[in-house]
Design brief:
FAD/NAD(P)-binding domain, seven-stranded mixed β-sheet
Length: 508
């Protein structure tokens, strides 16, 4: 049987990202249609308000103007994640921090990591990249004259998730002719083989398709409730399981940090994301080590007593992923696929990655489905496991001992075997490209370098020769000059955003 009718069940960021990827790929294929069924009663969950640089490629491929995106979705630029207090304050200072930058380290050609390990007197990111000081100066990553999706430095975005979903929806409908149906799915009918036969809706009756993409969030209406695909629990490795979230209004003249602020606390961490008109703040914690009442008090303290009068809500976090991401004629994406936690903005990242993969390998018939399904499941399991490892890295490297939460995060039984193996290797060898051998690495060498050495990981480095030391010092001075030049040339973050709203960026 040929695959002629594809349906995406669920809107939001996940559903509409999938609609754009599929719509773009299938737009000139006259015999294949893409439909998205969206409930008019379920709001978008605004957790995924941070992205990674890969989203720029997707948005550009969809034909979305960066100017339109920035002005319509309350977008701000994100050049880094600034981790505050993830290390012991008695050893590293009360307000210790490090940056996980989005620009490549050591851009002058030679790896400056050995140079830093032999000195270890400054922040690692400040030694290897000029972006550290650009971030600390609250500068934008580009100028108003810089073309769309191009920057002087690497960047991603912070965004309003609800507005982002609306922009993606309009683009998918208008550019790629994706059919949009507003209806609630009341029942998922299966056929004799256990595959999805049809969907029963409240306003459109029974609808039959060939391939079903489940983007129904935590409910996982098809992959979980109908097809009963098991969930792989990762709560023994990643200990946080709850978030207390709030939106904090800001003044129109307040400086906007060009980074996500991630501040560690007694039993987890706090995200702080600045949009143009508000901050999205989330207190992430483990209920094993902190109760809800204490979490409210801690968040109120973080906001300087500003929690009262604001509407806040609790979000449970079931940490893990589906045992299969493609089962029978159903593929799950977004929160239906799984969720770990907001650290490192992995939710939108994995959704975009998976949606692109499906669009580029969509089977033409049911006969082709089995082999592609097997490969997709293998690739996505690999990607999810690597994300688990990278998130765990932040916790198990911390030397904080002010609560049992941090002590337990260093327990070897909670550290994934592959991560433990790599950390053992990196005690005596600086990470290199060969340590990340798959094209499906979600986080690569440069990501690990920023986190490992931002958290003062002790790799036994060979002493540098006089020639090596001289070259490293020269390149370090060159990066200093580049940083000063960029700080002088680049606009203040908020100033650039205001100019984009007035004049727009240059289209490519």
């Amino acid at each position: 049987m040929d695959i002629k009718k594809v349906v995406i069940v669920g809107g939001g960021t996940a559903g509409w990202l999938a609609a754009n990827h599929l719509g773009k790929t299938l737009f000139n294929t006259n015999d294949v249609t893409v439909t998205l069924i969206e409930s008019p009663d379920i709001p978008t969950i605004g957790v995924g308000e941070g992205t990674v640089p890969a989203i720029r490629k997707s948005l550009q491929s969809f034909g979305i103007s960066e100017t339109e995106f920035i002005t319509q979705c309350d977008v701000t630029f994100k050049q880094s994640i600034k981790f505050s207090n993830w290390l012991d304050s008695d050893i590293h200072g009360k307000n210790n921090f490090f940056h996980h930058l989005f620009d490549m380290p050591s851009p002058m050609g030679d790896d400056l990591t050995p140079f830093w390990l032999n000195r270890e007197v400054e922040d690692y990111a400040n030694i290897v990249s000029p972006q550290f000081r650009v971030c600390e100066a609250f500068k934008a990553p580009k100028k108003i004259t810089t073309p769309e999706y191009v920057g002087s430095l690497g960047y991603a975005y912070h965004l309003n998730a609800a507005k982002f979903a609306k922009l993606l929806a309009k683009n998918a409908r208008d550019k790629f002719s994706v059919e949009h149906i507003l209806a609630n799915v009341r029942e998922v009918k299966l056929d004799d083989t256990g595959a999805v036969h049809s969907l029963v809706t409240d306003t459109q009756g029974e609808l039959k398709f060939d391939l079903y993409i489940d983007c129904t969030g935590f409910e996982a209406l098809i992959i979980n409730k109908a097809l009963k695909v098991p969930f792989v629990d990762k709560s023994k490795q990643l200990l946080v399981d709850r978030a207390l979230t709030v939106q904090v209004p800001t003044e129109s003249n307040e400086p906007i940090p060009p980074f996500t602020l991630a501040t560690a606390h007694q039993a987890g961490w706090i995200w702080d994301i600045a949009l143009s008109n508000r901050r999205g703040v989330g207190f992430v914690y483990s209920t094993k080590y902190m109760d809800d009442e204490t979490a409210i008090k801690k968040l109120d303290k973080y906001l300087g007593g500003g929690l009262s009068g604001l509407n806040y809500r609790f979000l449970p976090m079931k940490v893990g992923y589906r045992e299969k991401f493609w089962h029978q004629n159903c593929i799950c994406l977004g929160l239906a696929q799984g969720f770990l936690e907001p650290l490192e903005a992995t939710s939108i990242l994995l959704t975009d990655f998976a949606a692109s993969y499906i669009a580029n390998r969509l089977p033409k018939s049911v006969v082709q489905m089995a082999s592609i399904q097997t490969q997709f499941n293998q690739v996505m399991e690999y990607a999810w496991e690597r994300v688990v490892e990278f998130i765990k890295l932040h916790y198990c490297l911390s030397d904080r001992s002010d609560s049992q939460f941090w002590v337990d995060n260093r327990d070897p039984s909670t550290i994934p075997d592959e991560l433990a193996r790599k950390l053992s290797l990196w005690q005596t060898h600086i990470p290199n490209r060969e340590d990340f051998f798959s094209k499906f690495e979600v986080f690569d060498l440069e990501n690990y370098l920023y986190v490992l050495y931002g958290m003062k990981y002790q790799t036994q480095a060979d002493a540098l020769t006089e020639k090596q030391m001289s070259l490293a010092i020269k390149q370090s001075h060159q990066l200093d000059q580049v940083a000063l030049q960029l700080i002088g040339e680049l606009p203040e973050h908020r100033d650039l955003l205001e100019k984009i709203k007035l004049y727009g960026l240059q289209s490519i």
